[in-house]
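Example 9 (inverse folding). The structure is encoded as follows.
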């Protein structure tokens, strides 16, 4: 609990210890077994079986974080999380994580505090109406290595699934799930063929329509969202929301404009300019292609 000098409780945290799962329990997870008290490790073991070693690490799950109503939006929640992570690191924990309904405001709070998205449920929660999200902040070198690999796989899966199970996921939430949280510089190699490079370049300069190059744009966005650290082009939130809504979810122009806050009369020109930036940033030295 974080208190003010006056003694008033500013933030209260409900914490659960998770991890250190034995092999006999891990082996039963793919069959649907859900051991009590290990929500995040079981999630990782089920969806990312090659990285199930994560379940053997020792972590803390934030069950609930409550800030005094008069102190909302003043940084007390972030301060409490930072203190929790510091104490957890000192006590030998490998990670701190949380699971919650993925609203834009809540997800932004966790991502802003360095928590890495590793999972989003494929369907909306019937009660909250939101996609459930799991985030993890690694505290040790071993946990960091595993979480970075899981995050990359999660983002690759999400990129491919945005046009189907996540079609109705808010573009602003999808953008946050694809955030550049990992600070280690890693450039995802572009997978575009020579023909795709040609078409996406012609679209960027205005010779081809978007529809003639949409497949190439999607491949370019894969490189963008999977790159990390300084190897990823920094774009405004509204720009990435537009790219997600139109190019990855396949929304009509009008809905893509509404999802990103871009004027409908400007949305086509705006997207072309964004792709031009992406081609310039990721295309250098990569256009030899396949």
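The amino acid assigned to each position is listed next.
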């Amino acid at each position: 609990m974080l208190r003010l000098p006056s003694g008033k409780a500013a933030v209260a945290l409900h914490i659960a210890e998770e991890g250190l799962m034995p092999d006999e329990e891990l082996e039963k997870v793919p069959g649907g077994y859900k051991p009590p008290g290990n929500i995040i490790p079981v999630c990782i073991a089920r969806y990312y079986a090659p990285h199930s070693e994560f379940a053997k690490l020792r972590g803390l799950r934030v069950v609930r974080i409550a800030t005094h109503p008069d102190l909302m939006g003043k940084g007390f929640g972030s301060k409490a999380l930072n203190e929790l992570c510091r104490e957890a690191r000192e006590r030998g924990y490998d990670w701190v994580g949380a699971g919650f309904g993925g609203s834009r405001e809540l997800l932004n709070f966790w991502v802003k505090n360095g928590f890495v998205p590793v999972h989003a449920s494929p369907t909306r929660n019937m009660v909250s109406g939101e996609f459930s999200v799991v985030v993890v902040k690694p505290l040790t070198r071993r946990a960091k290595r595993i979480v970075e690999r899981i995050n990359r796989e999660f983002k690759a899966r999400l990129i491919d699934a945005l046009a189907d199970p996540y079609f109705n996921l808010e573009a602003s939430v999808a953008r946050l799930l694809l955030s550049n949280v990992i600070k280690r510089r890693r450039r995802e190699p572009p997978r575009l063929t020579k023909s795709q490079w040609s078409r996406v370049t012609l679209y960027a300069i205005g010779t081809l329509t978007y529809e003639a190059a949409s497949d190439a744009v999607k491949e370019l966005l894969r490189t963008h969202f999977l790159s990390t650290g300084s190897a990823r082009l920094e774009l405004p939130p509204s720009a990435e929301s537009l790219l997600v809504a139109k190019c990855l979810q396949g929304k009509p122009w009008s809905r893509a404009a509404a999802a990103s806050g871009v004027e409908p009369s400007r949305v086509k020109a705006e997207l072309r300019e964004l792709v031009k930036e992406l081609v310039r940033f990721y295309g250098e030295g990569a256009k030899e292609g396949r």
